[in-house]
Structures are given as structure tokens and as C-alpha cells.
Amino acid sequence: MLKQVNAVKKANIYFDGKVTSRTLIQADGSKVTLGFMLAGEYTFGTNEAELMTVLQGGMSVLLPGETAWRRIAEGEEFSVPKNSEFQVKVDKYVDYSCSYITE
């Protein structure tokens, strides 16, 4: 649960509008995004380490250094290291949250 957050009003829009998110800044300064992905295949880059949680729907993910795709279902999460790329395949849709992990 998120408490005492400030929302950045402007949406983050990627891949011709097929992926969108909103940034929330928590009281301690940490960032979380809440987003939605339509069906498709996407490659994302990270500047910070991330923890992604699937809230609704599901996706397959190919993480850095791995050769096998993983299926991530509703309620499951995965971590991505900073300064890396990962790929996702979305069959239908995904509602997700992404927490940015500062070291």
C-alpha cells in the first residue's frame, strides 16, 4: 500500500502509447510507477534497479544474462538490475507497479 505520495501529473508514454505509467513520489523520496501495457513485445532499459509487480494480467520476461523466458502471473514480481535491458512479451494486457531500488 502506498501512503503519503505525490503524483507527477504528466504520464510516461512509451511505444506509441502501448505502454503508459504514472510516477508517484513517496514521503521518503522513493519513486514508484503504476502502469499499463497493451499486447506486444517491448525492450526496456534501466538506470536504477527495479522491482516489478504484475497487478493484473500476465507477461513473459527475458531478464539480463538469462536465455529462457519466465512467465510472470498476477501477484508475482521480478527484479531487474540497474543499467541493464530486459524484454517483455504481453499477450493481452498487464497492469503493473515498478519500484525503483536505490542502493
Automatic annotation (TrEMBL):
| Record SUPFAM superfamilies | RmlC-like cupins (SSF51182)
Which keywords describe this protein according to UniProt? Glycosyltransferase, Transferase
Q: Which domain of life is it from?
A: Bacteria
Q: Name one Pfam family in it.
A: Ppnp
Membrane-spanning regions, if any? none
Catalytic activity as recorded in UniProt = cytidine + phosphate = cytosine + alpha-D-ribose 1-phosphate; guanosine + phosphate = alpha-D-ribose 1-phosphate + guanine; thymidine + phosphate = 2-deoxy-alpha-D-ribose 1-phosphate + thymine; adenosine + phosphate = alpha-D-ribose 1-phosphate + adenine
The record's EC number reads 2.4.2.1, 2.4.2.2
Specify the enzyme's EC class, one word: transferase
- Look up keyword Glycosyltransferase and say if it applies: yes
Looking up HAMAP family in the UniProt record yields: Nucleos_phosphorylase_PpnP
**What does the UniProt record say this protein does?**
Catalyzes the phosphorolysis of diverse nucleosides, yielding D-ribose 1-phosphate and the respective free bases. Can use uridine, adenosine, guanosine, cytidine, thymidine, inosine and xanthosine as substrates. Also catalyzes the reverse reactions.
Q: Which family does it belong to?
A: Belongs to the nucleoside phosphorylase PpnP family.
What is the recorded name of this protein? Pyrimidine/purine nucleoside phosphorylase
Q: What's the source species for this entry?
A: Candidatus Enterococcus moelleringii
